[in-house]
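Dock magnesium ion; give full complex structure.
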Amino acid sequence: MQEQWSAVDNWLISALLPQDEILERVLKNNQQAGLPAIDVSPAQGQFLAMLITISGAQRVLEIGTLGGYSAIWMARALPEGGKIVSLEFDPHHGRIAQQNIDLAGVTGKTEIIIGPALESLPNLAQQPPFDFIFIDADKRNNPAYLDWALRLSRPGTLIFGDNVVRNGTITDAQHPDPHVQGIQAFLQDAGQSGRLTATALQTTGIKGWDGFMLARVNH
Ligand code: SAH
Ligand code: DHB
Ligand code: MG
């Protein structure tokens, strides 16, 4: 199946997305720096960018920068004066991301904060709320990231959670992997929060069989 998923995804990407030498260079830089190829796909990057444009988001929070690939897609979608704050644990990832962000010309819109996200998030409570929050780091901490996303949001904020399906492992209630357990609790918490309208869609493509959760903070 993977071969077909990739063929269709690549067909869609070449039909719909503009060629982008900078984003291709970014992925090459990541590879040369030894970063894992777990960035969003080009089609997913465009989807994130469109959600930002459609919702009129000006302040974006990303948890999990890696090499800055998704951050660049989102930063480009922001209006003049918009800002993305991206949290990254690994200083090497953060250095490569900063180089890529500079290369893409979105330095003024982007701030990378190095450290465990759970240590950086409390410091963001002094800032105005975020309009769009992309959760894409260590999945075992997703329930805590959802709590923080709610605290750092306003009514209307969109919360986007990546990798919520991971080959269907979520249906296994006995799954031993703490990352799978984190995703399960994240989705259950979102459904029971009482403050969110939430949905999730499964996806197949060059990143395999996976999915995302999209939630809107209502109050
Ligand atoms: N959003 C990126 C991919 C992120 S991959 C993109 O699509 O381009 C997940 C990233 O989260 C990795 O770089 C990893 O180092 C980082 N990460 C893992 N645990 C973390 C933590 N506790 N706090 C912050 N970042 C973390
Ligand atoms: C992994 C993490 C991701 O954010 C992703 O999109 C794919 C894989 C991982 O940790 O394996
Ligand atoms: Mg991801």
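Observed: The beta strands are 59-63, 83-88, 110-114, 132-135, 158-162, 196-205, 208-217.
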